[in-house]
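Provenance

Sequences were taken from public entries as deposited. Structures were produced by running a predictor on each sequence independently, with no templates supplied. The record for Phospho-2-dehydro-3-deoxyheptonate aldolase from Streptomyces malaysiensis is shown for reference.
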Amino acid sequence: MTAPGPTAEKVTAQQPPWPDPDRLDKIRHALGERPPLIPPEETGELARRLAAVQRGEAVVLQGGDCAELFADATPPVVRRKLGQLRELSAAIRTGLGLPVVTMGRIAGQYAKPRSAPYEWLADGTRLPVYRGDAVNGAAADPDARIPDPDRLLTAYDRAADVLSTMRNEQTAHDPAERIFASHELLLLPYESPLIRPADGGRYASSLHFGWIGERTRDPQGPHIRLAASIRNPVGVKAGPSATPADLVELARLLNPGRRPGRLTFIVRMGADRIDWLLPPLVEAVAETGIPVVWLSDPLHGNTIRSGSGHKTRSLRAILDEAAAFHRILRDRGQWPGGLHLEMTPEPVTECVARAADAGTAAFPRFRSPCDPRLNPEQAAETVHAFTSMLRA
Ligand code: PEP
Ligand code: MN
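Predicted structure for Phospho-2-dehydro-3-deoxyheptonate aldolase:
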C-alpha cells in the first residue's frame, strides 16, 4: 500500500496505515472474544460522580503519561503512578473540602494521534512517526515503525495487567477515593470490538472514561459516532479551531438525553489565546442548557520546540492557561471542573520553567516517547495553584 500523505491522514481519521488487513481482521475478531476489561456498573458510578462535578460539588483530577509504554505495565511502576494521582487528589480534597474524581491516563493510553505522518532525522532522512505501543515501536528504526496489528492484542493484555494492579492497590483505600481508568478513544479496531452490551445499551469495556482528541472530533467522523454509541462518560478536547457551533453540535450529538456527567469538554487553547477563544464557546454551550463538565488541559496548547529540538512546555504558560480557564468559567457562572494533565511520578526534565529557558535547556532526563510531562514538583505546583483559585 502507498504511504499516506497529510491528506490521507485526515480522511482516515488518524488510523494507522496497517500493512496487513487480513491480520487486522483476525485481531479484531480475537478482541471481540476477550472478556470486558471494565464492568459496566463502574462506568455508571463514574458518571454519577461526574454529575456532582457538573453541579459544582466536586473536582476532577485526570492525569498521567502522554503515551503509556507496554514495558511500564508492571506493579511497581503502576503503583508509583497511582501514588502520584492519590497524593495530588488528596491535596485538592483537603484544600477545598470537596470530593475529587480521580482518573488516570492509564490502562490503555497506548495510541497517539500525530500531526504529521513522518518525522525528519538529523541526517535528512524521514521516518514514519511513532503512534504509540499499540501500533508501532518508538525506536528510530524504519522496521520498528511499521504498524503491527498484533500490538492491539498486547495492548489489551497490558491494560489488563495495569487494571489488576489498580484493583489490588484499591483494596488499601477508601472506595470514595478510587482511581478510574481513561484513555483517548483513538484506535477504532481496538475500541469497536470491546464495545459490549450494558442494560439496554452499549458501553466501551476498555475504559471507564474515554475522550476524543482535538484531531478526531469531526462531528460527522467515526470517533464521534463511536462516542455517541456508548453509555460511558465521554470527553472531547476543544482546541483553537473549535467554534461555538462545533461544541453546540457535539453537545447535542453526545448528550441528547441531557444527562449530567455524561459529557466533558477538555479545553486546550494555549495561554496566549484562551482569553478570546474560550468565552464564546462557554456561552454557546451554556445557552443550550445541555449539562457539561468543563476541564482545563493547560498543556497541549502550550507545546514549543526547544533549541535542542525537544518538544517542551513552560510551566509559566501552563499556570497562566489554567488561571485564565478558571476566570473565564467563573465569570460566566460555570464551575471550572478540574484539570487534565500530562504528568509522571518520575523525576524527568521535560517541561521548562519559562519559555525563555527552552532555547538553552539540556533536558538530561527527557524520557517521554511523545509529549513532555510535568515532573512531580511541577504537577504539584499546578494542582496547588488551581486549588487556590477554586478556594478564592
Ligand atoms: C493528548 O491528550 O495526548 C493529545 C494528543 O491531545 P489533543 O488531542 O488535545 O492534541
Ligand atoms: Mn499528549
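Residues 75-96 form the longest helix (22 residues).
Residues 345 and 376 are 5 Å apart (CA to CA).
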